[in-house]
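Re: iron/sulfur cluster structure - here you go.
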Amino acid sequence: MLDKFGRNIDYLRVSVTDRCNLRCCYCMPEEGVEQLSRDEILSLEELERIIRAGSNAGIRRVRITGGEPLVRRDVSTLIKKVSLMPGIKDISLTTNAILLADLAEELKEAGLKRVNISLDTLMEHKYKEITRRGSLGRVLVGIEKALALGLTPVKINVVVQRDFNLDEVRDFIRFTESAPIHVRFIEIMPMGCGGGLSDEFVSAEEIKKIVSEDYSLVKGELAGGGPADYFKVEGYHGTVGFIHAISRHFCARCNRLRLTADGRLRYCLQQEQSLDIKGPLRNGAAEAELVELFGQAVMHKPAGYRSSEWNKNSLMNTIGG
Ligand SMILES: Nc1nc2c(ncn2[C@@H]2O[C@H](COP(=O)(O)OP(=O)(O)OP(=O)(O)O)[C@@H](O)[C@H]2O)c(=O)[nH]1
Ligand SMILES: C[S@@+](CC[C@H](N)C(=O)[O-])C[C@H]1O[C@@H](n2cnc3c(N)ncnc32)[C@H](O)[C@@H]1O
Ligand code: SF4
Ligand code: SF4
């Protein structure tokens, strides 16, 4: 699907739930999270129908995200249904990996191709601090399981915050040495609970400079549909990626739409505008009408990021990152 700016939109990020078993400081408040009701969230059948319509409109890659997608019991069934859709060439998952070790086999069998795992620190006490309730050990077992089962490439998302984990950048690079693990450093965004542009913000360029003091990075490559720029340390098995979400926008090569947990097609991560697809679906819309809604959403996509438009009320857990 070509948008008004000539970009090919073929990637759908699907937030299957707003619920999460963690409370990362930059994403969700610790207490008092307002949850969508069961009825507000798309059912398995509704997700299937919308994604099928997307594939008929031109979507070729689907990423399942959340909230935490693995807390939704029917996520493997959804993945199975999506992996059988002839138009879909890539189905991937973004997860905090707390439940990954338990579910990896089931997900692989269902047809999941690969996982991106969020992990901001390699130290247990700091992991507890940033997630407010997780266990680092479970994530590390999840990573091993994903590698063993070939849910690859395994990418690790690290949101960098100056006083929290900038000092661990080299430890993450060492993580790429002996295993095909692909670490991506992400600039924190001022959304939801993210402090973003405060003192905690570190630009991807600054991170790259710190890495370059100890390692010589050469241009790398990695399959995927996302905005990361990849490098690698020669001889290392994995790669090192940078996601300049704030400092250098990649909007000119934007390729995505988002389906929010409450059934809206969102045109841009940063901007709040979106189109209701759940309503028409529940009112009996036929497949062709749903396909048409995808076409409309694509035409609404903005040229890109506008620094004045970050919206603190947009919660990452309903949009899916
Ligand atoms: N500003 C902006 N940031 C994005 C966008 N897509 C992803 N990101 C950021 O990149 C992070 C990582 O995204 P992932 O869910 O791992 O997916 P990805 O990197 O797009 O996917 P692949 O490259 O296909 O593996 C997200 O949590 C966001 O912080 C986007 O369209 N705009
Ligand atoms: C919202 S989570 C959903 C999937 C899953 N729960 C996870 O954490 O991987 C998707 C991604 O958004 C990122 N994220 C959340 N809030 C962010 C923020 N304010 N700035 C940058 N990235 C953020 C997380 O680090 C994670 O990689
Ligand atoms: S980043 Fe992911 S794991 Fe952390 S609170 Fe948000 S949805 Fe949950
Ligand atoms: S900020 Fe909006 S337009 Fe830019 S890459 Fe992200 S989703 Fe696309």
